[in-house]
């Protein structure tokens, strides 16, 4: 790797990768990606730039700061051991955490807004491949991702088998299911219906479709969590000081779970851009490893990269049968792990005590494979 | 039963039941319920009014016309045999198909609109008990309902055990789960956000929150269907003549499943009132057999009415473990049946070949119980 492009440990660097043309033929000139790096700089041997690279792929509303959203997974002595590996994670194109997206400035002036094209998971990956080329990293030790990051990890294995030693694909499927497209497109509809959306060109107005983004998140969050876990926490409890059982229904008299969802909405509203949410949700809708490759199972069957699959037993959004399907069809399948948790899809974030050993097991396999054993 | 209040066979009658006070203390003066009746009038013995009554409870957007929404289940020789039974079904209070609801005229002028109170499932049932009193029906042979109708059937058994010989409770739970409240309150939010909602007082404006109702239905429909069934039908197919994979995301370039959900939305928009949808969705949120009864399991344990439970194995909205929970806790439990279907919650409507024999089995048991065997 080019040492001059290595971000400081735990920090990030914005790296220009030039002009991008999407799978569907649209242009994104002057694309930049924000790259985060994690490595223990106090550990002199091997030098960070000589360590095997673990490329982590973040989920829809994640970003490059893996240590923040995957606590306990990355660091010295952690499963993604920063004494041994150089852990890299780039904010996705279309996102809003430093990489080029709808909220970025357009080279011709103003914000990208509605001029930002539709992107696919493959676009996200081909842009990242360009980043690795700029970084002079010909091959990564492993690519690891969950949810939308899992879709990218899978496409990495299919698109650039020569650049990836092994892949860990977590809580995702070979393609969007119709149910996912349905619930995801409903979220997009709600954002588009917000009067502040302005067709996606709201960035100069000073006020965005915050209401729509919050409503989308409320719906999405219920697909990220297990229904048993949500019920155990909130049941039919009223929110403290409010009475949803009163003589007249009132929006300010809520159940505890409504207040919880409102908090999830507020948290996302304060940290994420609606335009990026729409762009990346649409990318998830476009996810299909079979497109242009003779179908889903044929594409999976040709996968040369040793790939391990992980799912959560109570996942509503990406049900476990989808990971079983990947396992049955991947050409170079090296194992399936199940996270057992009432928490649903978010189990990969929450169940660190299960996720950690799975990462370790995967890296033991990846190390053995790299050593030719 | 009072023969002068018997609707014509397959027809209906609007029956005044007087002033209602809700569980939470609000008044609904001059309440009327629209009663539908199904009986074979060509079969002279016993006379329709002397036949054992089967009281059917419809679901959220259903109505009293059982023969329409439950095809093949009611009629001569059908599981709900109109030669043997008098099948009655009333449109629920708060609905929009003939019974008093937010779209009805208020005795003080104008439409009820926001003056219509919050109602609970128990309110729906106590109002129906008033109807049976007016009809001079002291006791029904069986009460049968699914989904919101199942919640009513369950409350019938708990509230009026002296008036019900047996109950069939289909695809519902002992109380709303937090997940249900979450997804249902999200639907209410979308309707409330429609500019045409006007706080619920839109009836005189000539235009209602049709957009919001449609968006709510899109979301709801995905909870009524199984994800495997939706995926088998639509997968990632584009809608014919549209290209959701194009260079720019456009709302008019849809996946097939989006078009399908749009059709579901349009169908409901043309036949249902948004105010009723909000009122009845809120009633589902309030469903809790344990409220004021020492908790859910204590309430179920005291159930004296012989009750049979039915669920669908792929139900997302009312998962089968909820029917297993009812079965473990009902004081007078007489059986659990599982509908096996990829269709999810709507399986009780769609899988007639399974639902029919379950209804027949239940009525055999109910007949034996009534005969004291």
TrEMBL record, chains A, B:
Pfam families: Abhydrolase_1. Keywords: Acyltransferase, Amino-acid biosynthesis, Cytoplasm, Methionine biosynthesis, Transferase. It is an enzyme of class 2 (transferase). Pathway: Amino-acid biosynthesis; L-methionine biosynthesis via de novo pathway; O-acetyl-L-homoserine from L-homoserine: step 1/1. Coiled coil: none annotated. It comes from the Bacteria. It is found in: Cytoplasm. The active site is at 147 (nucleophile), 315, 345. It catalyses: L-homoserine + acetyl-CoA = O-acetyl-L-homoserine + CoA. Residues 52-349 form the AB hydrolase-1 domain. Substrate binds at residues 217, 346. Its EC number is 2.3.1.31. GO terms for molecular function: homoserine O-acetyltransferase activity. GO terms for cellular component: cytoplasm. GO terms for biological process: homoserine metabolic process; methionine biosynthetic process. Transfers an acetyl group from acetyl-CoA to L-homoserine, forming acetyl-L-homoserine. Homodimer. Belongs to the AB hydrolase superfamily. MetX family. This is Homoserine O-acetyltransferase. It comes from Corynebacterium heidelbergense. The lineage of its organism: Bacteria, Bacillati, Actinomycetota, Actinomycetes, Mycobacteriales.
């Amino acid at each position: 790797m080019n040492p001059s492009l290595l971000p400081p440990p735990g920090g990030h660097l914005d790296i220009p990768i030039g002009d991008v043309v999407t799978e569907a033929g649209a242009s994104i000139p002057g694309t930049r990606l924000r790259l985060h790096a994690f490595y223990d700089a106090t550990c002199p041997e091997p030098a960070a730039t000589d360590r095997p690279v673990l490329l982590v792929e973040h989920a829809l509303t994640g970003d490059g700061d893996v240590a923040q959203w995957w606590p306990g997974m990355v660091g010295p002595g952690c499963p993604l051991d920063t004494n041994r590996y150089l852990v890299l994670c780039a904010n996705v194109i279309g996102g809003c955490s430093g990489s080029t997206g709808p909220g970025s400035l357009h080279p011709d002036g103003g914000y990208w807004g509605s001029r930002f094209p539709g992107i696919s998971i493959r676009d996200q990956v081909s842009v990242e491949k360009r980043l690795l080329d700029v970084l002079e990293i010909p091959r990564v030790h492993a690519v690891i991702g969950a949810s939308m990051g899992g879709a990218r990890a899978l496409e990495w294995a299919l698109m650039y088998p020569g650049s990836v030693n092994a892949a860990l694909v977590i809580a995702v499927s070979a393609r969007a299911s119709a149910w996912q497209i349905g619930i995801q497109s409903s979220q997009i509809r709600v954002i588009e219906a917000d009067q502040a959306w302005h067709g996606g060109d709201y960035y100069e107005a000073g006020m965005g479709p915050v209401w729509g983004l919050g409503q989308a998140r409320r719906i999405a969050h219920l697909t990220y969590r297990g229904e048993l876990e949500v019920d155990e926490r909130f049941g039919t409890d009223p929110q403290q000081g409010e009475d949803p059982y009163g003589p007249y229904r009132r929006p300010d008299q809520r159940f505890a779970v409504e207040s919880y969802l409102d908090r999830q909405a507020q948290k996302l509203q304060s940290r994420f851009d609606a335009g990026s949410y729409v762009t990346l949700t649409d990318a998830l809708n476009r996810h299909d490893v079979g497109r242009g490759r003779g179908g889903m199972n044929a594409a999976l069957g040709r996968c040369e990269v040793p790939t391990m699959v992980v799912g959560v037993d109570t996942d509503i959004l990406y049900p476990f049968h989808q990971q079983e399907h990947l396992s049955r069809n991947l050409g170079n399948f090296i194992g399936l792990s199940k996270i057992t948790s009432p928490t649903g899809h978010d189990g990969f974030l929450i169940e660190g005590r299960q996720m950690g050993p799975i990462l370790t097991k995967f890296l033991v396999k990846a190390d053995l494979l790299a050593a030719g054993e």
